[in-house]
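The protein record filed below.
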Amino acid sequence: MTGSTSAAIMGHNPFMTANDCLQTAMDAVSGKPRKELTFEALHWGTQFEVDIIKEACKRLQVDDYQTKFARGFTADDAPMAVSLDATAKGNDQVLNSDYENNIVCYSNNIKLSGRGIIEAKLTSHDSELELPMYRGRVQLQMAMEIMNCDWGVVAVLHRGIKLVLHVFQRDKELIEDIKVAAIDFDRRVQKYKQNEEIEWYDFTTPKSAAKVFDEATDDTVDLSDMENDIQTIQETRQDMKDLQELHDVTTARVMARMGDAKYAKAGKYNVTWGEINYKAKPETVVPAKEARTIRVNKLKVKENV
């Protein structure tokens, strides 16, 4: 398990699933070429990585930073590997949160003693009160464990204008969870490597299941043991439809009372009915797309009579 995939494998990444990571690993075992990631944010994150690290070190008053490493690093007691953005040497200074200077400490009195890990991130999102697990938080703990460092920082540049420094101590409980996830992930990969047997992670969304089982055959499978599950699908669909109708009717009733007013007060609630302004755009030509077939994300259920 790598640092970049750790959050997804542990179920903390809303943009990637554990099964996505497993599929990539199995493709590598099978010798299939890996698809290169080439999106805009990744490009600019790489371009500004060293600048983010330099500024983070300056604000934290740490020095002797290193941003180039000849290789990745692996753990001795679990199948984990990381590539580092940077390490730096602390001067035994003790940090607490300083929100005016965008320094957020996740423990009290964090001592920057010895070398620590610095991860650089760039995002178009507004700054968060708490760093999401997928934005380097799991990755950092994994790197701290492998490199035997007691402190680490995720330096996040938001919208190109606000640098927030998230400072952590080693989290032993999270590190143990990371090791368990890494061992389990490696077990699944080794199982596939030995006999091409696939042990998928539990599917939690229709989209994730459709992404894995992306081609439909004309086979019929017996799901007698899942009759209650099918009934639940039907009942919750009707509940959702009823609730949506109630929501729409109630919303329309409130809007009618508000009329042209943008704001309303109703007891403990303040209501805003705003507007969205769209800028004029020139006509665009939609580029051609090749024919393709995808698996739908919704089941069609019909009761037997």
Q: What stands out?
A: The radius of gyration is 25 Å. The domain at 3-195 is CATH 3.90.320.10 (Lambda Exonuclease; Chain A).
